[in-house]
Write a structure and sequence with these properties.
The structure is a single chain. This protein has 172 residues and is mainly beta. The protein folds into 2 domains: 90 residues, no CATH class; 82 residues. The protein has no helices and 16 strands. The radius of gyration is 17 Å and the shape is globular.
Amino acid sequence: MINKAEIKAAPLSGEYKERIYDISSPWNSQDWTWVKFENNDYTQWFGHFRGSPRAVSVSHKHNKVLVLTSDYLFLLDRLNGEMIEYESQPQYQSLTISPLGDFIIADYYNIEIIESSLANKQLIESPIQMDFITFQGWHKNLLLIICEEFLNSLDNQMKLELNVETMKLSLK
């Protein structure tokens, strides 16, 4: 059972057990993301995923792992590391895990909650139209977010907070 995951540089050949997660497509890039996994028994292994690295998160609540690369969004089973499903050519730029165990993901304009599957996404309503969304980290149950206000020619950077208990997004 996967307990931890983090993006790392490629390991030395033969140093760790390795697993390749690749989808056959003519649209694939030549880039790879290396993720080091640690199981509950402290054994470590690497997965390599098609696309350049963006983010990885583990949900103990849903027993799932999300790996975000430039080419794919991979959903893995935390119990055995098997790929459950994937999404091609994702526009997502940011990924985090809430203190409640739900995945939170953002593309350039929207923030969504992913629960048990990639098809089960909930859009979070925003008080403004957002652009260039980046997650800045957690303060208790508040996700700190920075974005630009969409179509604002003043280059106006906005700060927002997502309260994961209420799923409300507010200006800070």
